[in-house]
Each structure stands twice: as C-alpha cells, then as structure tokens.
C-alpha cells in the first residue's frame, strides 16, 4: 500500500455509482502532473424528514436494513424540527423518494446528489486539494490551482451525407490531420502534418489512438458536442466500434444522459463548445458562424475560397485536393484555439466554476449555482432547504423605466447605480432565510420592511454577506485586471435576483423578488427627485440609470465637475437615509458617461417619448463617437444600408450639418444601384421551416434556397442572407429578380430618417418632391 499523497487540481468530472454500502463518489482532476481519479465509497443517500412524520417513516422502513434516522439541530422553512434520513442502498433510496411523493411526506433536499453535497458542504467548487491513497479519497478542501487544463481543438470534415473525410487536432503539443484516402505527397502549398488512413473505420481508430497518446483534459470546438462528437459517435456505431473517449474507457453521453446544461459528457474530460461559452461570457455577434466570429475577433476567417458553396468545395477537395481539405480542416481547429486564447475563454470557464460550484463544462444553471453557494450557509444557520414546488408564481414587477422627455440635448450625463439589485439585497438584508426568521420574530425593531408583505430579520441572514463577499472579490479581480474572474462574479451576482423569482428555484417567492425590484423603483424615483432638487433635469431613467440634462450652454469641464458632485451628493444622501433606518447602504451611484449630444426620439406616429431607444455622442480628441441604444444600427435584422445611413445621419446632425441633402443623396444612390451590396438582410431561423405557419421573408428565402439546392441546407438555427426583389424575398446566393429599390427606400431609409425629420419639423415626403411614398 502506498503512502498518502497530496494533490491539487481542477475538478473535470464528478459522478457517483451505487455500491454495496452507499454511493461511491468519483472525481476526475486535472493536476499539474497529469490526470488523477479519486473515489470515496460508502457515502449515504441523504434527505431530511419532518420530526412530526418520524413515526410513519419508521413504520414504513421497518425491518429493512441500511437506514438511519438521526436528530439534527435544524428546522424546515415552516420552522418544524427535522431528522436526517440516511440510506446505503440506492434502490431503497429511490423507493423512499417514491413513497414520500405518494404519501405526501416531506423528504427535503432529496434531489441533492451525493457527489454535489460532499463538495458544497466543504465549500469546494472548481478547485480542490485532496489527500489520497491508492486512488482512495481521504480528505478534501478548497484550492486555487494555477495551471490550465490541457485542451485539444477538434474538428471533423464530412460529406453532405455524414461520411467522415478527416479529423483535425490542434493542441499545445500536436497539430495534425487524419485523412481518409491513399497517401499523396504534399506539393508544398500547405505546411501541415497529415496522416492518411485506409477508410472511415481506420479514421475512428486513429482518433482513439490520438486521445490515448496525448490524453487532453478537455475538448474544444465549434458546435463540437452537437455536431462533431455526435457524428463521430454515430459513425463509430455504424462500424461496430466503441467511441471510448472517456478516461475510464467509457463512451460519450449525450443530451438527457449528459445532465442539465451539458450536451455531451466524457468521463475525465471537459467538452467546451465555443459558441455556447462565448454566449455565457456575454459576447454578442451578428452571426456565431466560426468564419464570422473569427473574422471579427482575429481579423482572419476560414480557409475557404467559396463560402456560399462550402460543402461542394469540401467534397471536391476530398476527391481531388486532399491537402487543401486538410489545410481547411486544421485551420478551423486553429481558429477555435485562437478564439479561446483571444477571449481567455478557458480562464472564464475556470473562474465561473470557482464562483458557482457548477461542473466546469455546464452552461446556464443560475438556480443550481445559487443552491450550491447558499445551501451550506443555510445549514450552518440551522435550516434545511424547502422542496421545489410547482405552485404558479405571480410575476414580480420589472425594472423601473420612467417616461422620457424626447428631444435633442447637449450635455447629458448618465448616472448609473453599480450592481443595483445586489446592492439592494445587501442594504435591505433581503434573504430567503431572513424572511422565514422574521415571521417568528416578535420584536419589530429587529425587522426590515420589504414589499408585498415581506419582512426581513436584521440579525439572521446569509445572502447579504455572500453578496458582499462576491462584491469584494470582484473589486480585487478588477484591480488585478483579471477580466475573466471579474465577469464571472458579475454574472453570478446579477443572477441572484432572477433566481429568487424563478419558478425553478426552491427558494422562489414573489415577495423576495418584489422586495428587490420595487425597492429599485423607489430608489430610482427618490434619486431623481434629489437630482432635480440640485437644479438638473432628469430626462430619462431605466432600471439602474438616470439620464441627466445639465443645460445646453455648459462647458465639458463644468459638466464633469457637476457629474462628480451629483454622485457624491446622492451617495451621501443614501448613506444618511439608510443610517436613519439602522441600515448600512451599499448603494453606489457612479458617473458613467457624459454625452456631448443626446437625442431621445418619440414613439413613431406619436409625440410621446420612446423608451430604451436613444442616440448619444461622446467627443473624443475632436471627433464624435456615437452610441446607439435600441436603434436600427444595433439590431442584426436590419440591413447594412440602415446601419450605415443611421451612423452618417446622426454624425451630420450632431455636427450641425444639414441632413436633408444627405438623405436625398442616399435615396438617389439606392435607386441608382450604387448600394446593392448594402441591401442584404440576414436573419436566423428560430424554428424548422415546416414549423412556420406564416411565410415571412426570411422563411420564404430559406425555402427557395433549399428548393434550389435540392436538399435541406437551411434549418432551425441557420442564418439566411436574402434580398427583396420584384419577385419577393429571394436568397442572396440565387436571387433572380431585380432588386426592389422602393422597398428599401420605404422600409430601410424612411424609418431611420423619420425621427430626425420630425425633430426638425420636416417629413419624409418633402425630401424629393413627393416622389417617395408613392410606391
């Protein structure tokens, strides 16, 4: 027997399997010295029962073996004493859960999996330090590993019918392509390592050999779970092969078998899809196609000569130019690798795991993250969590949005409450446990009033301190310029409000969410009154931001000073206001932006000011930088024509130049065919084409494209590029009709121009003698 060892690493996987004396917990780690698997047998399946139902449970358990009821110093949210029920037999545990449901007995926290409970009760999240002996886990504690797990960027190429052509691998230690076909010498055009294999089955065996030799901690790619790994699994089954990519020799598990938030699970390895993780990190792109994202982030796209006929080029190269196909395959792998590096996406994944406790390759899961962080704190306060109920929850009010004062302004400041909802939780002690404790408190001086009948205990609470801890960690991350960690903490903190009002959360209660949002309403209204009491004018407010007009004749320097004075005064106001209530304010108003020019449009066809739509201009080094909110230029379903026109129009207007000649020029250019490349719509299909009852333009174009191609090229999730012609909506790649220029004048130029024209007391029909609008 070996002596005990100590290791530190990232948790790549956590599972449990039934054993003779309880669950065996299995953890896969990435350590600096390589992968490590440790296990802990004999862990009980645990839930909590009400003391009042103890006799019924004992009668039902009777002479069965392997169960134990233990008194614990805890109570339910209904303030009833509870006992811990521990079972060693998995089958009996499943039967007990069914019995509880059938009889209406409480079995609290029965859904918490043993491998999760072991970690959360020790405050272990993504990083762990373990003491182990012969792969047996002896002890564990939280840790902060400094190394990065090893990755491989994986990409496959195949025919339109799904037969595999090649597999590309790009890692820190090896970059190569496995290609089906007869070996052929390179002609020197491409510098890459390529191995030829006899057939598809040999290609799959080569894949398994590569993983056995290089053994990466994780797989990254573009739609890597839903496409690459799924097709590899399908083709392996076709050849009677096991796609044993797991470090324990197991095959990948997909969809429902993978668990929530994970499309594919491979034992001992992460599976990270670039698209999903960019979205999780709040990156936004008009298109998430690899070529589009790589071009925007890296300035370089896919190695393809004809993107409109990419599949035809792939099939042609497989039969006639395998080295070109290999170059294309490996380039895709490289682009994904570089996108992960450029965005520090792996660092974000690790930081998020350290904050949430979720599996490293699980996306979503804000409710699960809240449970992981909050549950052990709840237990240490003498409570167990309630069960998830299916009760219909009345919706909580949304964020505060005030009526705007439309018009063109100079010198508008944006004053923004920093993390408003988390700050409200901290300041007003909003907490699920605190609300339960308040219900039993007779001393009103120990209570804080909430909304919709909620009250919170001043002494018994956990969530405010958790939020404060996260806020401090975020400030430290920002000072250390650790953007991935800062972003991960921000996302987690902001998710807590939504969780408390979500039907999928065991702690949901409309009183909790309303005590946050309605408090936010009152804070925004009171801050507006205070600001206007200082002589400024608030022209708009939205959730956590106030737009303050200081006057058109003020200098930028004076506005800067006034902005700093306003936030300092408002913060002092809230400190004093909460201090009078015996509370400590965590509210912090910040001076975020100074717009030299600002335009708030009206609702189309009305004199009422719009909401969530505005244009501002910030002067930087003598030039104006435009900021659009809710306007056509920031919406992906408008054409480049609308975006470029809007940029040009507001630039002219804010610079004091006449806009009518500019608009006439754009109209003339469109009608003369000088802007044809700007007339392309691009829109994503949200459903399969057969599921659309109506035939909107993008659906019409996609159906035509599939008809022309003779196959289902466009389906749910596809992005279609199309134009409007005399024949209607047609796919860009095969449009036959003449472009309908009057459509673009009426539907793209006019909506952009009208807000400005209305502000200068003009209208669209006047631009060229009434010609516009007749078609």
UniProtKB/TrEMBL annotation:
GO terms for molecular function: 3'-5'-DNA exonuclease activity; DNA binding; DNA-directed DNA polymerase activity; nucleotide binding. Gene3D superfamilies: 2.40.50.590, DNA polymerase family B, C-terminal domain, Palm domain of DNA polymerase, Ribonuclease H-like superfamily/Ribonuclease H. The keyword DNA-binding applies. It catalyses: DNA(n) + a 2'-deoxyribonucleoside 5'-triphosphate = DNA(n+1) + diphosphate. Residues 196-293 form the DNA-directed DNA polymerase family B exonuclease domain. It comes from the Bacteria. GO terms for biological process: DNA replication proofreading; SOS response. Residues 375-734 form the DNA-directed DNA polymerase family B multifunctional domain. Its EC number is 2.7.7.7. Keywords: DNA replication, DNA-binding, DNA-directed DNA polymerase, Nucleotidyltransferase, Transferase. PANTHER family: DNA POLYMERASE CATALYTIC SUBUNIT, DNA POLYMERASE DELTA CATALYTIC SUBUNIT. Belongs to the DNA polymerase type-B family. This is DNA polymerase. It comes from Ferrimonas marina.
């Amino acid at each position: 027997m070996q002596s005990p060892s100590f290791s530190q690493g990232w948790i790549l996987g956590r599972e449990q399997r039934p054993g003779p004396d309880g669950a065996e917990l299995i953890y896969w780690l990435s350590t600096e010295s390589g992968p490590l698997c440790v296990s802990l047998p004999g862990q009980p399946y645990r839930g909590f029962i009400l003391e009042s139902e103890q006799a019924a449970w004992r009668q039902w358990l009777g002479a069965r073996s392997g169960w134990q009821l233990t008194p614990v110093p805890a109570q339910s949210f209904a303030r009833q004493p509870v006992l811990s029920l521990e079972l060693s037999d998995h089958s009996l545990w499943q039967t007990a859960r069914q019995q509880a449901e059938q009889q209406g007995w409480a079995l609290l926290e029965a859904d918490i999996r043993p491998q999760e409970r072991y970690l959360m009760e020790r405050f272990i999240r993504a990083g762990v330090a373990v003491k182990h002996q012969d792969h047996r886990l002896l002890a564990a504690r939280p840790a902060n590993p400094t190394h990065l797990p090893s990755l491989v960027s994986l990409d496959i190429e195949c025919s339109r019918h799904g037969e595999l052509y090649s597999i590309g691998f790009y890692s820190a230690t090896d970059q190569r392509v496995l290609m089906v076909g007869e070996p052929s010498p390179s002609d020197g055009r491409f510098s890459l390592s390529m191995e030829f294999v006899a057939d598809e089955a040999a290609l799959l065996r080569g894949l398994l050999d590569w993983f056995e030799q290089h053994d990466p901690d994780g797989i990254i790619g573009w739609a890597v779970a839903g496409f690459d790994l799924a097709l590899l699994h399908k083709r392996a089954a076709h050849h009677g092969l096991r796609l044993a990519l797991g470090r324990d020799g197991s095959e990948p598990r997909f969809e429902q078998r993978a668990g929530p938030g994970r499309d594919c699970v491979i034992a001992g390895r992460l599976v990270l899809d670039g698209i999903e993780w960019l979205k999780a990190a709040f990156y936004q792109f008009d298109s998430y196609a690899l070529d589009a994202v790589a071009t925007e982030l890296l300035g370089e796209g896919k190695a393809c000569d004809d993107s409109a006929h990419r599949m035809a080029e792939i099939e042609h190269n497989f039969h006639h130019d395998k080295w070109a196909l290999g170059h294309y395959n490996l380039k895709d792998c490289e682009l994904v690798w570089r996108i992960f590096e450029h965005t520090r996406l792996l660092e974000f994944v690790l930081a998020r795991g350290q904050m949430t406790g979720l599996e490293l390759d699980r996306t979503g899961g804000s409710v699960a993250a809240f449970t992981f962080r909050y549950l052990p704190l709840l237990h240490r306060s003498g409570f167990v969590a309630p069960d998830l109920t299916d009760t219909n929850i009345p919706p909580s009010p949304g964020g505060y949005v005030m009526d705007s004062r439309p018009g063109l302004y100079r010198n508008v400041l944006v004053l923004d409450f920093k993390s408003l909802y988390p700050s409200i939780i901290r300041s007003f002690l909003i907490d699920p446990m605190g609300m339960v404790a308040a219900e039993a408190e007779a001393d009103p001086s120990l209570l804080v009033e909430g909304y919709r009948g909620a009250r919170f205990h001043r002494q018994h609470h956990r969530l405010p301190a958790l939020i404060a801890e996260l806020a401090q960690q975020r400030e430290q991350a920002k000072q250390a310029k650790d953007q991935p960690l800062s972003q991960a903490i921000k996302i987690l903190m902001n998710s807590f409000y939504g969780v408390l009002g979500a039907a999928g959360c065991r702690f949901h209660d409309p009183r909790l969410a309303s005590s946050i949002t309605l408090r936010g309403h009152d804070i925004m209204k009171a801050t507006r009154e205070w600001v206007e009491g200082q002589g400024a004018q608030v022209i708009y407010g939205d959730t956590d931001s106030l737009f303050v007009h200081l006057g058109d004749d003020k200098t930028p320097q004076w506005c800067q000073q006034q902005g700093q004075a306003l936030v300092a005064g408002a913060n002092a106001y809230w400190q004093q206001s909460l201090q009078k209530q015996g509370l400590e304010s965590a509210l912090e108003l910040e001076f975020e932006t100074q717009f030299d020019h600002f335009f708030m449009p009206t609702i189309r066809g009305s004199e009422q000011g719009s909401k969530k739509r505005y244009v501002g201009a910030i002067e930087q080094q003598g030039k104006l930088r435009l900021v659009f909110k809710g306007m056509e230029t920031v919406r992906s379903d408008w054409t480049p024509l609308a975006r470029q026109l809007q940029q040009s129009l507001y630039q002219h207007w804010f610079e004091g130049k006449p806009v009518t000649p500019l608009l006439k020029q754009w109209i003339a250019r469109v009608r003369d065919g000088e802007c044809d490349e700007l007339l392309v719509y691009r829109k994503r299909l949200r459903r399969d084409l057969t599921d659309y009852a109506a035939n909107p333009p993008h659906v019409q174009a996609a159906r035509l494209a599939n008809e022309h191609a003779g196959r289902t090229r466009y389906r749910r999730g596809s992005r279609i590029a199309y134009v409007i012609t005399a024949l209607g909506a047609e796919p860009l790649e095969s449009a036959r009709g003449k472009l309908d220029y009057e459509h673009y004048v009426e539907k793209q130029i006019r909506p952009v121009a009208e807000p400005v024209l209305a502000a200068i007391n003009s209208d669209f029909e006047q631009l060229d003698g009434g010609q516009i609008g007749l078609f």
